[in-house]
Amino acid sequence: MARNKIALIGGGNIGGTLAHLAGLKELGDVVLFDIVEGLPQGKSLDIAQSAPIEGFDADLKGANDYADIAGADVVIVTAGVPRKPGMSRDDLLGINCKVMKAVGEGIAAHAPDAMVICITNPLDAMVWALRQYSGLPHNKVVGMAGVLDSARFRLFLAQEFGVSVEDVTAFVLGGHGDTMVPLIRYSTVAGIPVPDLIKMGWSSQEKIDAIVQRTRDGGAEIVGLLKTGSAFYAPATAGIEMAEAYLKDKKRVLPMAAHLSGQYGVNDLYVGVPVVIGAGGAERIVEISLNDDEMAGFTKSCDAVRGLIDACKNIDPSLA
Ligand code: APR
């Protein structure tokens, strides 16, 4: 049986890390695409030269032509520009919306049967635009944000409780931005919900509130430290987890930006919700019950995403 083919559109910090991880995990052959000549070829060759040391078999190829992504099983999109200090994800919209047009058309022409995972920010609006431009089915186009946001939340909770990150589960709903909704009630240590852990004296409400805020600001904290770009190790790891769930038909339940068509009372919007991801793509959206506060937070987040989609439509009226 031939190996799976993974196309990575964007060969920058996240794209290069994705290629390395895909190799290390032997997920398949990798085509790293970028508009900059030499960059994806150089990174691919460098990673390929690590294969004999690590002992993985995968063809890694750099490309500047969309024809090279033909037949890809998975396409992960990181093309575009990242944030610099002082910028919000939304400031990237103008440039990255145009990038999504080129990428969406390239995928439609050469890899229309692929599962597409978008990472480019502002995430929820970009995955919506990418779906529009590519014309692929909604269940085959999703956005990576929730896995990353909940990983940040899990790390901070594990550090607060002094337990393994493995035993902490956490859920984050809504858009990938300041309005994201970390759900404390659905976050646990070995099944024990965080509110119960507060009652058990493991932490205080104030400390958990600070962790929620740090999670919301998780991307900005790293941009502030790096000064020249944004996070890439954890975003790439999160993207690979989603790709693996699809390729291995694992039916993982992962938070991601998925297309809502009535779920949670929301129509025609991409926003972060829990999703069963397997060989059918985004197979099922999990509708958990939300209390009034959580619903209010989710609605606010959806409104923010809608505002960004409207801004995309203003930039390119063909999207309207
Ligand atoms: N087609 C393909 N690649 C493109 C295009 C395009 N039209 N425009 C830009 N690129 C490439 C750039 O040449 C660059 O190599 O996208 C790459 C982006 O890489 P980085 O600048 O290193 O950004 P990165 O940290 O990987 O983040 C990419 O993901 O998390 C988001 O906010 C982040 O939107 C940003 C994206």
From TrEMBL:
Family matches, as SUPFAM superfamilies: LDH C-terminal domain-like, NAD(P)-binding Rossmann-fold domains
Keywords, ordered alphabetically: NAD, Oxidoreductase, Tricarboxylic acid cycle
Reactions performed catalytically: (S)-malate + NAD(+) = oxaloacetate + NADH + H(+)
Domain Lactate/malate dehydrogenase N-terminal: 5-143
Signal peptide residues on this chain, from the entry's feature table: none
Entry's EC annotation: 1.1.1.37
UniProt GO molecular function: L-malate dehydrogenase (NAD+) activity
Binding residues annotated for NAD(+), in chain numbering: 10-15, 34, 96, 119-121
Lactate/malate dehydrogenase C-terminal domain segment(s): 148-307
Top-level taxon: Bacteria
Positions of the catalytic residues: 176
UniProt-annotated binding residues for substrate: 83, 89, 121, 152
Pfam families attached to this UniProt entry: Ldh_1_C, Ldh_1_N
Similarity section: Belongs to the LDH/MDH superfamily. MDH type 3 family.
Described function: Catalyzes the reversible oxidation of malate to oxaloacetate.
Record HAMAP family: Malate_dehydrog_3
Full protein name: Malate dehydrogenase
Protein source organism: Marinibaculum pumilum
